[in-house]
Specification:
Layout (H helix, E strand, L loop, with lengths): L4 E6 L5 E2 L15 E5 L1 H7 L37 E3 L1 H7 L3 E6 L9 H14 L5 E4 L3 H13 L3 E6 L4 H9 L3 E5 L3 H13 L4 E2 L8 H5 L1 H9 L7 E5 L4 H16 L8 E7 L4 H8 L25 H10 L3 E5 L1 H15 L5 H15 L8 E6 L12
Parallel strand pairs: 5-13, 6-7, 6-9, 7-8, 10-11, 10-13, 11-12
Antiparallel strand pairs: 1-2, 1-3, 4-5
Helix pairs in contact: 3-4, 4-5, 8-9, 9-11, 12-13
The chain binds pyridoxal-5'-phosphate (PLP).
């Protein structure tokens, strides 16, 4: 399978850069670079029927993914996660068509596997010799796993209060972990220093072009699993926002490929009361988000005070007629327990946020009883046992 990757484009300024060298942010604007494909050629060579019989992992979309050489298409079976019907939770909320994309079934227990398999594969293909990442936990674990497959050293910088199971997992996967007194953006400073010293390549969210490419496969899968008719509402717990940005890009690509029509889901970005920079910017009508002071939430993946792709998240939410809302940590935790009790899924706190948001949107009638709603259950709960009493 041939990749139709063509070039990189700055998401802010539209400037074009070549895709055949390691790149972080766009050099001029210091904003995220997005991968662009030769879609006219792909449209002829890659009809959606070509997917029949392919392996059930994210490489089934290889033509629209950046990795050129098959030897770098590492896999631990990531992607093509099940779309689960949530009948009992749906009934409790008065919804007839509630489903979950169960991303907790990915390798290392979260959807970070999608982004990191792609970023690591492409970095290795373009000659990176070592990899580093700032993380709340899941991204570091996923990078460690794929760096192992690539045979590259992995350096992880994480907040000191990261739950123990993450640390154990990263170490077991061969990463060198440094714990920092601070948040993910403080960890990012250490990674940047190492870049300046030429020690490694930086795989921070949206600071290289390919994590978003891995995450966009959630959008391809939604279309495929819904029979090429996208659902009405997608609810997504937002930290750095690669998932929303990636899915929105995927919908656009699929329409150009002739795979889907112009209909889009309303994209809902959910954050915690304790760290909601995107929600605040959405409410104020701003295109970029100010840093959130004193970020604190039990949903570690949402404790992201600054997102370099803020404008891409906000653009997608607005263009889709979606919305952004923040929920309390209390409602996050009670929703995790409700999901477990009603549906047999032990999910990470970030997932509880999607359910708490859903409840509010049903109560305010923003979501109608028959609409097809998808919750992104982004991670498994097993690394957060400290929250359950
Ligand atoms: C990282 C993470 C998120 C946030 O994802 P972004 O793409 O950074 O917005 C949500 N849930 C879990 C479980 C995560 O690990």
């Amino acid at each position: 399978m041939k990749s139709y990757l063509a070039h990189l484009e700055c998401g802010w300024s539209g400037e074009i850069y070549p895709a055949n060298q390691l790149m972080n942010l766009s050099p001029a604007a210091q904003r995220p670079l997005l991968a662009r494909y030769d879609i006219d050629a792909a449209r002829k060579a890659f009809p959606r029927e070509a997917l029949l019989g392919r392996e059930p992992n994210l490489w089934r979309y290889a033509e629209m993914l950046p990795v050129q050489d098959e030897a770098f298409r590492f896999t631990l079976g990531e992607g093509f996660t099940p779309l689960l019907r949530l009948k009992r939770l749906g009934a409790a909320l008065g919804l007839a068509n509630l489903t979950a994309k169960d991303e907790g079934q990915n390798p290392t227990g979260s959807f970070k596997a999608r982004g990191l398999v792609m970023a690591v594969a492409r970095a290795a293909e373009l000659g990176a010799k070592a990899l580093a990442i700032p993380t709340a936990g899941n991204a570091g674990s996923a990078m460690a796993a794929y760096a192992a497959l690539a045979g590259l050293p992995a350096y992880v910088y994480a907040p000191r209060d990261m739950p123990m199971p993450f640390l154990a997992e990263m170490k077991a996967l061969g990463a060198e972990v440094t714990l920092i007194d601070g948040l993910i953006n403080d960890c990012a400073k250490y990674v940047r220093e190492g870049v300046e010293q030429g020690r490694w390549f930086d795989l921070s969210t949206l600071k290289e072009p390919y994590r978003a490419e891995g995450k966009k496969t959630m959008g391809y899968e939604l279309a495929e699993q819904f029979g090429w008719e996208l659902p009405d509402v997608v609810i997504y717990p937002t930290g750095g926002g690669t998932g929303i940005v990636g899915m929105w890009k995927a919908f656009d690509e699929m329409e150009k490929l002739g795979w889907i029509g112009p209909k889009r889901p309303r994209m809902v970005s959910v954050q915690s009361d304790g760290c909601a920079p995107i929600v605040r910017a959405y409410d104020k009508g701003e295109r970029t988000a100010e840093a959130w002071a004193n970020a604190a939430t039990i949903a570690d993946g949402l404790r992201v005070p600054v997102a370099v792709g803020d404008f891409l998240i906000l653009d997608a939410v607005r263009a889709s007629n979606g919305t952004a809302l923040a929920v309390s940590d209390e409602s996050i935790l009670s929703s995790v327990l409700e999901l477990g009790r009603l549906e047999g899924i032990f999910a990470a706190p970030e997932c509880g946020a999607t359910i708490a948001a859903l409840r509010r949107l049903v109560e305010s009638r923003w979501i109608k009883p028959n609409e097809r709603v998808v919750l992104f259950l982004t991670g498994n709960g097993l690394k957060y046992t400290h929250l359950i009493r």
